[in-house]
Amino acid sequence: MPSTTNTLIYLMKKYAILCALLLLFAAHDMSYAKVRKTARKTQQTTKTVQEKYEEIDNFDFLYSGSNDDLNLEYDAIAINSLMDEAMSHIGARYRSGSKGPKAFDCSGFTSYVFKQMGMTNIGASSRDQYARNIPVSRSEMQRGDLVFFTSPGSGRNVGHVGIVVDVDPMTHTFNFIHASSSDGVKISNSNDGFYAKRFIGVRRVF
Fold first, then answer.
1. 3-class secondary-structure state, position 164
2. 30 burial class (0-12, 13-18, 19+ CB within 10 angstroms)?
3. What are the angstrom distances between the C-alpha of 195 and each of 9, 13, 88, 139, 142?
4. Are strands 160-167 and 134-136 parallel, antiparallel or unpaired?
5. Which residue, among 110, 186, 103, 185, has the nearest Cα to 148 in the 3D structure?
6. Is the model's pTM score more than 0.85?
7. CA 166/CA 175 separation, integer angstroms
8. Does the structure show a pLDDT above 50 at 54?
9. Higher confidence at residue 61 or residue 159?
10. Phi first, then psi: what are they for 205, rounded to 5°?
11. Sign of torsion, CA 132 133 139 141?
12. Please, are residues 184 and 93 in contact by the beta-carbon 8 Å criterion?
C-alpha cells in the first residue's frame, strides 16, 4: 500500500509538472503571436507612411522653383514700376548733359529712371552703361533692358541709349523709350531708318 501511494504521488507530481510546462508553452506562444501581430501592424504603418511620403515626393515638381517664381514676380513688378516712371517723362525736352527731371540727355534719362528704382550705379554715360551692365543677346531681349546705338558723332562706338518698352518675339524688333536729341523723351521703333542701322547691343540691369 505505501508503495502504491508513493507511486500515485509521484505520478501526480509528474502530471503537475507537465501541466505547468504546457501552460508555460501556451503563454509563450500567445506572447510570441502578440509580438508578431504588433510587428506586422508596425510594418504596415511604416509602409503606409512611406507610401504617403512617396506620394508627396511625386508631386514635388508642383513646388519646385517656388523661389524662382517669386523672383520673377518681383522682377515683373519692378519692371512695371520702371516703365511707369519712364513713361511719365514723355515729352520732356532734350538738353546735353542734363540728368532730369525737367530735361535729359540719353544717358541722363536712363540713369535718372533707374535711380528712381533705387539703382544708382548703372553708369553715368551711355558707354559706361554699356560696359557696366549684363550683356544679353537680341533674341533674349526683354522689357526694361537697355539698348544701345551709335550716334552721328560716335563713329562705331556707343553713342546713344534707351530702355526697351516691348519686343516682338518673332522678329526681335522692339520699341524703346529714350531722350532723342531732336524730339526729347519719346518712344521709337528699332526698324526706324536711323536706328535700324545703328543698333549695337543689349544690356540688362535687373
1. strand
2. exposed
3. 123, 117, 23, 17, 18
4. unpaired
5. 110
6. no
7. 6
8. no
9. 159
10. -95, -40
11. negative
12. yes
